[in-house]
Design a protein that fits this description.
Layout: E1 13-18, E2 22-29, E3 32-40, H1 45-54, H2 57-60, E4 64-70, H3 74-81, H4 88-99, E5 105-109, E6 114-118, E7 124-127, H5 136-145, H6 150-157, H7 171-183, H8 188-208, E8 217-220, H9 222-226, H10 228-237, E9 245-246, H11 254-263, E10 270-271, H12 272-287
Helix pairs in contact: 1-12, 4-11, 5-7, 6-8, 8-10
Length: 288
């Protein structure tokens, strides 16, 4: 269990990962993970960040701790509040180094981005551009098209009998593939699994760009943590054994966790009061 893991530092560390759709917070004290959360911010990024940090006041009040912020939406907060920032690929690397240093490749799917990180020698990262195809947002769109929630779509996918070709590069293109299938009476189980297969194909063809995905592969991010059908499609398509397909319990919070780990080795510290002062100030400025 992650809560039983003993980190090699004692000073409190706080990692905050503010992504395109969710905020993840990790607090480590006395070498133990004492708090973690994963919540949607629904575009109220700064308000939600303040809310989550306020919720752990009792764990931080009176403490001097290390802090690091990461994530696509975290950069703006870090810059405006003058707080330390770590790019999410490096934060992920800290988590990999700490828990599974023999990892060959990381595949991470977020709300609106997707990335493949190759380890071994020089680290190489491939990330999607401005389109959210093949991400959590794409999966949400396809579930809505099937008139089910994501949990239901996931359950349906596990009972599929065939896979249809569906484009995942864009939700609009995918819709033109899916709507005729629905109109022709295709089973929702098959369409759901086909949506996941489209995500897998987009990741392999669009991001790996010819690099072979083999060895020990770690899968991170909300969609790969929650969607069992998506896990199944990745594992089968890449022909990964159980030993080489890694779906860790920290998959949801990996960037926040890596941020907290990295911050422990930095010299800068902050107090709860100072952190809240900085966050509140930039939130107030944002309202003007």
């Amino acid at each position: 269990m992650l809560s039983d893991f003993q980190f090699d530092f004692k000073e409190p560390t706080l990692g905050i990962d503010v992504g395109s759709t969710t905020i993840k917070v990790v607090l480590i004290k006395n070498g133990k993970l004492v708090f973690s959360c994963y919540e949607r911010h629904r575009s109220e990024v700064r308000k939600k960040t303040i809310e989550l940090i306020s919720g752990i006041k009792s764990l931080l009040d009176g403490e001097i701790f290390h802090l690091m912020i990461s994530g696509s939406s975290g950069l703006g907060i870090a810059n405006d509040a003058r707080l330390p920032f770590i790019q999410e690929v490096f934060a992920t690397g800290e988590t990999v180094k700490c828990f599974m240093p023999d990892t060959d490749i990381v595949i991470e799917l977020g709300g609106e981005d997707a990335k493949v990180i190759f380890y071994g020698g020089v680290t190489d990262e491939r990330m999607n551009g401005t389109c959210a195809g093949g991400t959590g947002a794409f999966i949400d769109q396809m579930a809505a098209l099937l008139d089910v929630d994501v949990d239901t779509m996931d359950s349906l996918s596990l009972n599929h009998t065939r896979i249809y070709p569906i484009a995942s590069r864009c939700g609009v293109f995918a819709k033109t593939d899916i709507q005729p299938l629905i109109n022709q009476g295709a089973q929702k189980e098959d369409v759901a699994a086909s949506v996941y297969q489209a995500v897998v194909n987009q990741t392999i063809a669009g991001l790996a760009q010819g690099y072979e995905i083999t060895g020990k592969v770690m899968f991170l991010g909300g969609p790969l943590y929650y969607c069992k059908g998506l896990r199944e499609r990745f594992t089968e398509t890449l022909n990964l054994s159980d030993e080489n397909a890694i779906f860790p319990e920290y998959g949801l919070i990996s960037v926040a966790l890596g941020s907290a780990i990295y911050s422990a080795h930095q010299t800068s510290t902050i107090t709860y009061e100072k952190l809240m002062e900085k966050l509140t100030r930039i939130s107030d400025l944002n309202k003007k």
